[in-house]
């Protein structure tokens, strides 16, 4: 008898998890709280509680060649980097090709996921859902959490003394949709992730002045790399990967800094990262350096205090007449439907074996898919996660290696795009 698997969420991770379940002969049921697939990548004009939100102009940071699923290339007529509407179209074609929609229960909210009383022997879970005001309960052999972590905005107001006196408008980047209404405004964007950079560039075309405040700086790359190829096709090659594995750390650092400063010297633009040798996700933005160069965007240090109309920065400078503050400060992730002890969240960090399994469970029958920040596209990454996990559920693979350290900590970053 096929094992029953509950898949929570019908975004990127949920769709590929469904396919991998079907491929392994499992019996999946996907619960999606909205009326459609796509998750983060389905743009809507209005911000909705409980689901991710993107702005209208979002484009992928990784190319279609490096982002497609392994057995389903993107259509040839698609551009190398996709607008969110094009990527959603790909997911629709993918779901139709593999007949995945029949496994999805739309407009169904997962209220709770609890271990069954005999969990230590059965590994089973009780899932309670609500649809059209009616609650239902069902037992599943395994759970795949694919709900993402770009839902609950993080605005650390306690780190901005004087925010209560500020008379202008302030909001999280999750609320931002397009630059209409910002004409002639002086806007301060706090953060230096992909969303912060995109929003700053877009607003600089309408606002009278945009400031971008960064505590630590960031490497900034163009989507276009050597000979006009997409950056990830140049960066992620077997040869470069081999070099990163065999070269001494000092040589790697020198190569990294040289490569990152090839387009422009970050120190001259006030963007050089504090920990410049940390291999974290760079910002992908083709317009940010030029916008800084001709003054439409001005880079500022950390905000230390806010007044009724101005912002005071760590370097002692003051910018007056600030009309709008956009907090591009990331997200606080949570799993409200899980028992408190299942996935422990501390300081916006989670401990998961292989970035997926809660290490303390007696049975490896609950897994988080897609909660990882790869240096490149997340789509093939979640596919590999789902392929391995479904084999674990089926009993073909083991979730723990005998001599592995069982806990891996993940620090979340703010960017929703790959």
UniProtKB/TrEMBL annotation:
Q: Which cofactor does it need?
A: Mg(2+); FAD
Question: What are the record keywords, sorted?
Answer: Endoplasmic reticulum, FAD, Flavoprotein, Isopeptide bond, Magnesium, Membrane, Microsome, Monooxygenase, NADP, Oxidoreductase, Transmembrane, Transmembrane helix, Ubl conjugation
What Enzyme Commission number(s) appear in the record? Answer: 1.-.-.-
Q: Which GO terms describe its cellular component?
A: endoplasmic reticulum membrane
Q: Where in the cell is it found?
A: Endoplasmic reticulum membrane; Microsome membrane
A GO term, aspect molecular function? NADP binding
The protein's topology relative to the membrane is: Single-pass membrane protein
Q: What class of enzyme is it?
A: oxidoreductase
| Annotated catalysed reactions | N,N-dimethylaniline + NADPH + O2 + H(+) = N,N-dimethylaniline N-oxide + NADP(+) + H2O; trimethylamine + NADPH + O2 = trimethylamine N-oxide + NADP(+) + H2O; hypotaurine + NADPH + O2 + H(+) = taurine + NADP(+) + H2O; hypotaurine + NADH + O2 + H(+) = taurine + NAD(+) + H2O
For this protein, the record's InterPro entries field holds:
FAD/NAD-bd_sf (IPR036188), Flavin_mOase (IPR000960), Flavin_mOase-like (IPR020946), Flavin_mOase_2 (IPR002254), FMO-like (IPR050346)
Q: Which SUPFAM superfamilies match?
A: FAD/NAD(P)-binding domain
Q: Which family does the record assign?
A: Belongs to the FMO family.
Job of this protein: Broad spectrum monooxygenase that catalyzes the oxygenation of a wide variety of nitrogen- and sulfur-containing compounds including xenobiotics. Catalyzes the S-oxygenation of hypotaurine to produce taurine, an organic osmolyte involved in cell volume regulation as well as a variety of cytoprotective and developmental processes.
- Per its UniProt record, what PANTHER family does this chain match? DIMETHYLANILINE MONOOXYGENASE
Q: What is this protein called?
A: Flavin-containing monooxygenase
The scientific name of the source species is: Myotis myotis
Biological classification of the source: Eukaryota, Metazoa, Chordata, Craniata, Vertebrata
């Amino acid at each position: 008898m096929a094992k029953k698997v509950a898949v929570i969420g019908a975004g990127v991770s949920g769709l590929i998890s469904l396919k991998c379940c079907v491929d392994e002969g499992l019996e999946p049921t996907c619960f999606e709280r909205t009326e459609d697939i796509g998750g983060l990548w389905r743009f809507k004009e209005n911000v909705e509680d409980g689901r991710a939100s993107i702005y209208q102009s979002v484009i992928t940071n990784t190319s279609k060649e490096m982002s497609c699923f392994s057995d389903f290339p993107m259509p040839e007529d698609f551009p190398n980097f996709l607008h969110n509407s094009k990527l959603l179209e790909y997911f629709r074609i993918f779901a139709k090709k593999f007949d995945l929609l029949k496994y999805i229960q739309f407009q169904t909210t997962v209220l709770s996921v609890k271990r069954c009383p005999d969990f230590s022997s059965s590994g089973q879970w009780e899932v309670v859902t609500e649809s059209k005001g009616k609650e239902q309960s069902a037992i599943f052999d395994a759970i795949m959490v694919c709900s993402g972590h770009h839902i609950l905005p993080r605005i650390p107001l306690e780190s901005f003394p004087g925010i209560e006196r500020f008379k202008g408008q302030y909001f999280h980047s999750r609320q931002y949709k397009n630059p209409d209404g910002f004409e002639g405004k002086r806007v301060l964007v706090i953060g230096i992730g992909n969303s912060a950079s995109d929003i700053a560039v877009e607003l600089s075309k309408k606002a009278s002045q945009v400031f971008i405040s960064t505590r630590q700086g960031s490497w900034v790359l163009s989507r276009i790399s050597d000979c006009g190829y997409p950056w990830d096709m140049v960066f992620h090659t077997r040869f470069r990967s081999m070099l990163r594995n065999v070269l001494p750390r000092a040589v790697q650092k020198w190569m990294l800094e040289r490569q990152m400063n090839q387009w422009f010297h970050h120190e001259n633009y006030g963007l050089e990262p504090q920990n410049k040798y940390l291999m974290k996700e760079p910002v992908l933005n083709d317009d940010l350096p030029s916008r800084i160069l001709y003054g439409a965007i001005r880079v500022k240090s950390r905000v230390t205090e806010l007044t009724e109309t101005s912002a005071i920065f760590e370097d002692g400078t003051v910018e007056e007449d600030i009309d709008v503050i956009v907090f591009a400060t990331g997200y606080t992730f949570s799993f409200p439907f899980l028992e408190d002890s299942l996935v422990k969240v501390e300081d916006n960090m989670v401990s998961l074996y292989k970035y997926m399994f809660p290490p303390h469970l007696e049975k490896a029958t609950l897994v988080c898919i897609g909660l990882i920040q790869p240096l490149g596209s997340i789509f093939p990454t979640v596919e590999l996660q789902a392929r391995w996990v479904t084999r674990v559920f089926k009993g073909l693979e083991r979730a723990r290696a005998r001599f592995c350290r069982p806990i891996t900590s993940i620090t979340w970053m703010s960017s929703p795009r790959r």
